[in-house]
Design goal:
2 copies of one chain form a homodimer. Chain A is built from 4 helices and 17 strands. Chain A is mainly β and about 280 residues long. Chain A has a single domain, classed as Acyl-CoA thioesterase, double hotdog domain (Porin, Beta Barrel), CATH 2.40.160. The interface between A and B is large, with 51 and 51 residues.
Chain lengths: ~280, ~280
């Protein structure tokens, strides 16, 4: 029996194992995940992360990414994609492996990651981090209200129910704050609830924080590392993107993702190239 | 003619290429880099980083790490070590590769990194990050004043001229602040000046930030990513370690390294296991 996959995200990260080739999977990058001229980096990381979840979690034990690092090598385009995985080390609580995402023999993304079981991640929490203070979703700026030219360059925005804090969207009307901070509420438009793999997408889902520095344009990711800190509960996610240092043509973009229970479920940092002056 | 290597750090990361095996290097982990039973993770990252610098920089162009991620697989011990490198992709401004550090066939560390030329990292700086405010080095707490039992477990501290801000060393006298922040001045004891490879050591050189949370003990690194943001000038470095979230047995440790010109030269984050209650 084949179960129809109803969520766009689950279709986006669907993989088929190549017969006789353990750890080698085929997938498809759908044009609906495009941003700028390529496929969204978070979706690529979730796809590679799914392959490693299948590989490490084959016996059910280490199926959750705990730390995952992706190095982006060339822009991915809509069409077939294959993912080769390699097991590096299997430990008691963590398994480490690599994944390589390619199209027509051209490598797009190389991943190195450690997997475990986020169900173990219970127990003591000592945190000075606090979730962002946001107006309720209905008083935030829906991406559906974004300028048309922005949507047309970012098909994937139609797959997100993204509600940005009005205090951090001045850039959409030509008034960037210069603070280097964009924050808001996130859900998938089709209602698919969050899980660890979806958090890999969410870490790279908001507009680049350089928009808020008055630098519109594409900001290609060099490297993105996501740490998964807890399994998210269903509901809205709160996401904060921030940057403190843009220099020499690069900037860092930190993301924090909080779930509806108020728990910090993911932290990420990426190094990206600053947009070229327009 | 053989040039004597006078700096302990340069000896620590020295490599010899195996005849007939391009990209495969031999080194030696000296007992002087031990901390809590293993070899310091920053020194290991600098050693693997040196191998990739030799590999990528063979033609002189991409010798500087720009982003480097290390996944720690097993505790390294004093003795011989070999490093295998693999080129993943050579681009115009960045080259990406992997390194695998092993002892007796047992892998200690897997690295994925992109290299470039930090001399290109000039130009516009837009930063809201500010260097830490520290008392002058002579009014900070020298590691030479640390409790004897701490030094005996951390041979490498004798190689550092580390002056910690008195405001962040309450833990040394049983009064941790609970803020999750340790900061201070850093130099190598033998006066070897900073460069990009040395910054990989510095990112993991201070005591674990969990000391300041009242959790003494060893905090093994799972993953450490360092972004090199500028080439450091000679002189003192200022280093800040901080953490905001300890949960489920893991914590993140962020490091910022500033050079004497007041420039942010490196940012890093690691995911580490929380020390076991003692």
């Amino acid at each position: 029996m084949t179960t129809a996959i109803r969520s766009e995200f689950d279709r986006g990260i669907a993989l088929t194992q190549r017969p006789g080739e353990p750890g080698h999977y085929d997938g498809e990058l759908d044009a609906g995940w495009q941003i700028g001229g390529g496929i969204n980096g978070g979706l690529q990381l979730a796809l590679a992360g799914h392959a490693l979840s299948l590989r490490h979690g084959a016996d059910g034990s280490h199926a959750d990414p705990i730390s995952i690092s992706g190095y982006y090598l060339s822009a991915a385009t809509p069409g077939p994609v294959d993912v080769r995985t390699e097991l590096v080390r299997r430990g008691r609580s963590l398994s480490t492996g690599t994944a390589s995402l390619s199209q027509d023999g051209r490598e797009r993304l190389r991943v190195l990651a450690s997997y475990g079981d986020l169900s173990d991640a219970e127990g003591a929490v000592h945190t000075s981090a606090t979730p962002p203070q946001l107006p309720p979703p209905e008083r935030c700026v829906s991406v559906a209200d974004a300028p048309r030219e922005m949507i047309s360059q970012a098909a994937l925005l139609e797959r997100f129910d993204l509600r940005l804090d009005p205090a951090t969207v001045g850039w959409a009307v030509g008034q960037p704050s210069g603070n280097g901070r964009i924050q808001g509420w996130f859900k998938l438009a089709d209602g698919r609830e969050p899980d660890p793999l979806m958090l890999l997408l969410v870490a790279d889902a908001l507009p680049p924080v350089t928009f808020d520095l008055g630098m519109p344009g594409w900001a290609p990711t060099v490297e993105l590392t996501v740490h998964l800190r807890a399994r998210p509960v269903p509901g809205w996610l709160r996401v904060v993107h921030s940057s403190r240092n843009l220099a020499g043509g690069y900037f860092e973009e930190d993301a924090e993702v909080w779930d509806e229970s108020g728990r910090l479920v993911a932290q990420s940092r990426q190094l990206a190239r600053a947009p070229r002056p327009q």
